[in-house]
Transcriptional regulator MraZ (Avrilella dinanensis), 154 residues
Amino acid sequence: MKAIVGTYECKVDAKGRLMIPSGMKKQLPAAEDGFVLKRSVFEKCLELWPMAEWQIMMGKINQLNRFNKKNDLFVRKFMAGVKLVDIDDNGRLLVAKDLMAFAGIQKEIVLSSKINIIEIWDKELYENLLSDEDIDFADLAQEVMGKDTADDNN
């Protein structure tokens, strides 16, 4: 799958439905393939996984030895709150109440691409994360992506 690109603001209605913006919807695989909606591992947001990407991740997780207690706990936590979801004919996605509560989603949200998945954030939480002054993005970028030479592919 090609990378999904973009950050979009939208609203959730009283029933927990959000309209996928057309610019993002055009980048998604066919709606009939389905999606998985889950809690993020590191942040208080949700992740929308196209089914093909989810199946790749499940292949990796299925390699874990579940008789190892840490692996078993990881699988349980990773799968907590997972929901199969569809985008309806009107381009809407229904977010379950338990997931909305986990992510602190109120009314205004941000859909943000994260390479092959989409993060769904409460707008205020997303803005707070981006404006976090404790994180120096330049230092983080250098640490994560910086290489000593242009030939260094690792």
